[in-house]
Every structure is written in structure tokens, then in C-alpha cells.
Amino acid sequence: MQSLDHFDPAHLDTVGATPADAEHDQPELADAKQKREFNKLQKRLRREVGNAIIDYQMINEGDRVMVCLSGGKDSYTMLEILRNLQRNAPVNFSLVAVNLDQKQPGFPEHVLPAYLDKQGVEYHIVERDTYSVVKEKTPEGKTTCALCSRLRRGSLYGFAEEIGANKIALGHHREDILETLFLNMFFGGNLKAMPPKLLSDDGKNIVIRPLAYCKEADIAEFSRLMAFPIIPCNLCGSQPNMQRQVVKEMLAEWDKKFPGRLESMFKAVTNIAPSQLADRNLFDFEGLEAKQAELLAGRIQAFNVS
Questions:
Q1: Rounded-to-integer distance, Cα 81 and Cα 276, Å
Q2: Strand bridging mode 206-208 / 167-169
Q3: What residues form DSSP beta bridges with 207?
Q4: Which of 18, 220, 266, 286 has the most beta carbons within 10 angstroms of its beta carbon?
Q5: Tens digits of pLDDT across the chain (306 residues)
Q6: Pairing label, strands 64-68, 167-169
Q7: Rounded to whole angstroms, how far apart are CA atoms 161 and 165?
Q8: Which own/partner pairs from 118-123 qualify as long-range (CB within 8 Å, at least 24 positions apart)?
């Protein structure tokens, strides 16, 4: 490992797989063409995760990163890419996978332990019966997501402290961030999304989203080729009238009709001009006259210099 205390852009090229690593990560593929496509996809995901880590200083020397593993395509991909980067990263950091068993009926409890044991990954299974609480507290016809996610976050944040993890990695990708942006605009009356890096309200946890730059389609294809043992969420996905699903379909339609639109929209999230919006807490509109007077006085003084 190199003696840096953080990921550094100058060393990004070293954050990649060696031939031995590539062979270790390579799934069984049908032919040479498919292997080439897989390698390109894996490199792209690794580069995008590496860039996100660099841009937002997500991981530093000595960090212990708790990787929240749900059993879905996103969290499996996040764990795999982070493990891949870890082998050649310019800093030393550790990973620990954590799954929250919410006691949903029919949840296949054996799947994740079997997979993680085979991969040789340190892990914990945290058992919390949030399912019963969510079903009891959610009115008929209402979606369970808000309460479920709040209970899940509380359980995971507390457990991170127990195991000495100073970073919590969540598997949200580019489309998740954009969907949240539109959901907040349409139904919350505010302009916010999911930040790539976040300090929890109590100040105890730093949450990171290493997949922030990654496309959902790339993650889905990588997950398919890696043949991850996917565990569907029966609590979330089966709900009717989910506004997030409506927004997801809207973005997918835009992406199909107008290629490049999602890329432009995501760039906008990272390129905000507070003076061109209307939030008085972010920009001093009241002070514009004073600023104008100051600028004009400076120009007059410069003009009068003999």
C-alpha cells in the first residue's frame, strides 16, 4: 500500500485489478466476447466508484466501512467493487458486511451467510423485527417505505457504533438519487436528493454512497453476469401506487427518448447556483444592494485613478 491517507486522483490508475485480481473476480462466461464486455463493465464500475470516493473523500486511511447488504443487486455490486478496489487502493481500509434481517415472512435466512462465507467476507446478521412494527403502524393503503427505512437506518446506525465502523456504505446509485430529487420536488416541496456523503443528524455516523456515479443498468448487468443470489424485498416491491415507481418509469422513458438527459440531470445536481434559485437561507438576496454599492464604489475609484 502507498503512504497516502486518502484516495488520490493521481493514483486512480493504480486502483484497478491486476491480472490475478481479474481472474479472481471473473465469473464463468460463455465466450471471449462476453468476457471482454464483462471486463469493460467491471472497469467502468470500478472507475466510477473510485471517482466518487475521490471526489467526496469517502474513504480515508484506517477507515472501517460497514457495507449494508440487503441481498439486492445494488448492495451486492457495491460490496464486490469495494472489495476489488480494496486490494489495490492507495490506503488501508477494512470492510464488514452487515445485513438487517427484518423478519419478513419467507425471508431466506441462509442465502447471505452462505454467499459471504464462500467469499471469505467478514459479516454480521442483525435480527430486528421491524417488519411487524411496519405492518402494525402503516395505515391500510399507505406505502411502508418511509417507516421501514427510518427503522432500518436506526438499527444500522446503532450497530455501526457497536462494531467500530466509522463509515456506513449504502448502495444507492445515480437513478436512486435522481428519483429522490423528483419525489421531493413533486411531493415534498423541496429541492433535495441523496448526497454522496452525509453526516447523520446525531453526528455519530458518516454515510457514503459509493455507487452515486453508477448507472442502474450497468449495475443490473454486472449483477446478472456475476450471478449474485438475489433476495427480493416482498415488503417494498409488491406495494401498489408507489410514487417512486412512477418517477422511475418517467426517468426511464426520458432516458429512452432523449439519450444523455439523465447524465445532464445528474450533473445539475452537482452544479448548483444558489443565486439563480430562490432560497433565502442559501443566498443573501437582501444584501444585493449593499454588494452593488460596494462594486460601484470600487469601479468609481478605479476610474478616478490618475
A1: 38
A2: parallel
A3: 168, 198
A4: 266
A5: 444 555 664 555 544 444 445 455 667 776 888 899 999 999 999 999 999 999 999 999 999 999 999 999 999 999 999 999 999 888 999 999 999 887 777 788 899 999 999 999 999 999 877 777 766 666 666 665 665 677 777 788 889 999 999 999 999 999 999 999 999 999 999 999 999 999 988 888 999 999 999 999 999 999 999 999 999 876 555 555 578 889 999 999 999 999 999 999 999 999 999 999 999 999 999 999 999 999 998 886 666 655
A6: parallel
A7: 6
A8: 119/83, 121/79, 121/83, 121/95, 121/97, 122/94, 122/95, 122/96, 122/97, 123/69, 123/96, 123/97, 123/98, 123/99
Q: Which three cell numbers stand for residue 270?
A: 452537482
